[in-house]
Structures are given as C-alpha cells and as structure tokens.
C-alpha cells in the first residue's frame, strides 16, 4: 500500500516514527506532519498565513514538517506534496487516549477525518498513556489492522478511531468495536494565576472521570484493557430528530 502518516504531536514524535518503522517494511510511506506540538487544535485549517513544508531527516528517514495544523498536513500532502495517491492515511500514534467527547478537540482524529473527506481510508491511533516506553507493538497492531481496512474498505466519510491500553498485546483483554462515549471530564476548571509582570492569566485543568463497564462504549472498554475501535462519520447530521424539527412549522416564522 501507499501510506501517508501524520499526527498532531509534531514531526519528531516517537509514535509517528514507530509507525514509519513498521509500515516501511512492506509499504511505500510518506510522512507529512506538523512542525511542532499541535494537540487539541481540532479540525482547524490555516487560511490567513503562508503554509510552509520543509524536509526533515530523522534516523535516516525523512518527512515534511508543516507549519500548520494536522488537517493542513493532509490537505497539502494530497494536493501538493505527494507524487502518489495514498491508499490509506494513519494519524498517530498519539500519547493519550482520544475517546468520548475529547475526540471533538483532537488534532489526531481531525487529520484522519480530513483524509476521509478526500475519500481516503483513514485511522486515528492512540495509546492510553502519556508515559509510553515503546510504541512498537501498537504500530504492529496498526499495520495488521490496516490490511483488513484496505481489504474490506470503509464508506465515504467514515474513519476508524483506535485506542489501545498501554500494555503488551498479550496482556490486552481483546478488541471492542465500540461507540463514542458522550461524557466529558468529571470536572473542568481554570486556575487563575499571576505572571511575572503581575498580570492575571488562566490555565485550564481537567479531572479524569471514572468509567463504567459497558464494553460498547469506547472509554469503558479501554478502562477494562480492551482495544477500542470506533467507526466515526464526518457527517454530523442528527437524522433521528430531523423529522421532529420539521414538525415545528418553522416556515411560518422566517419573516421578521
């Protein structure tokens, strides 16, 4: 396969290069990633600043470092940088899970969504830890999963959001094909602080919530040491409520 790799942690992130090491054994690989940390930037793109892509060498391999967001990396890769069409785009491997409501903020997931909007097969891959000793087994699993995705395909605008426990594969309980949870953090707050110039600023803090035991919910499955695989659609329409809203008779209210 022709594989495009990206992330939101930056071109030098170890999870990205673990994927490159694994996929380059049997596939043609290109890397286009942000030139710095871009976590939690969501699906933003660059409109009012010049976008620059520079070749960067890491451990004998190379990729493009882009001074933009993860979605920018997909756009410029597909439209400008690559001399081939990717068969698949993989975003990751991200340190820290992307589950529940947090996927709405995730640059990792946004890059995979952008690829899906171009009609490309795509996956976002994360590990439930910020202190990861090795990404190698997660990269191996990702490569095997990619073969199934390539063989079977996905509908247009659909991607896979994959989250792994930070455990050796032989310690993982199994795989859960799960839905996205809707709950956010158990508590969000801003700490009010004072900088060296005596001016106030605020720093966002979050307390992680506890999870239940429903293996059909991404966070619950991950908490029980299952790999969570969630199909996500770019189409965010709530079809279930469309007919109800039509019954509101809004047509009579559009004149002011």
TrEMBL record:
Subcellular location: Cytoplasm
Reaction(s) catalysed by this chain's protein: a ribonucleoside 5'-phosphate + H2O = a ribonucleoside + phosphate
UniProt: a divalent metal cation binding residues: 8-9, 39, 94
Domain spans labelled Survival protein SurE-like phosphatase/nucleotidase: 3-185
NCBIfam families with a match to the protein in the record: PRK00346.1-4, surE
Cofactor requirements of the protein: Mg(2+); a divalent metal cation
Gene from which this protein is expressed: surE
InterPro entries assigned to the protein according to its UniProt record, in alphabetical order: SurE, SurE-like_Pase/nucleotidase, SurE-like_sf
Protein name as it appears in the record: 5'-nucleotidase SurE
Free-text cofactor note: Binds 1 divalent metal cation per subunit.
One term under GO cellular component: cytoplasm
Superkingdom in the source lineage: Bacteria
SUPFAM superfamilies: SurE-like (SSF64167)
EC annotation from Swiss-Prot or TrEMBL: 3.1.3.5
Keyword flag Repeat: no
Keywords: Cytoplasm, Hydrolase, Metal-binding, Nucleotide-binding
Protein role: Nucleotidase that shows phosphatase activity on nucleoside 5'-monophosphates.
Top-level EC class: hydrolase
Family statement drawn from the similarity comment of this UniProt entry: Belongs to the SurE nucleotidase family.
Record-level Gene Ontology MF annotations: 5'-nucleotidase activity; metal ion binding; nucleotide binding
